[in-house]
Design a protein that fits this description.
With about 90 residues, the protein is largely without helices or strands. Helix content is about 10%, strand content about 5%. It contains one helix and two strands; from the N terminus they run E-E-H.
Length: about 90
């Protein structure tokens, strides 16, 4: 008869990454698996935002960029008129 061993302890390991075409934000040049210069920790507080042109940026970076552009903001990567991907 096979012996049955009991499991008393286990350690789970997990990791996550954003599903973006690039590895870094085109505005701050920080890695997407990190966070923007305004944040201390990556994750839900520093999400990625995609434009209609499919370029991704940290939320805080693109909001600063959009607010600094007049009269119509453009994507910092391809210069298309900026629209949030819907």
């Amino acid at each position: 008869m096979p012996s049955m061993e009991m499991l008393f302890m286990w350690h789970a390991v997990a990791s996550w990454t954003w599903d973006a075409q690039d590895e870094t934000c085109g505005i701050c040049r920080m890695a997407f698996d990190g966070c923007c210069p305004d944040c201390k920790f990556p994750g839900d507080d520093c999400p990625l935002i995609w434009g209609a042109c499919n370029h991704a940026f940290h939320l805080h970076c693109i909001l600063k960029w959009v607010n600094s552009q007049t009269p119509q903001p453009h994507c910092p990567m391809c210069r298309r008129e900026w629209q949030f991907k819907g």
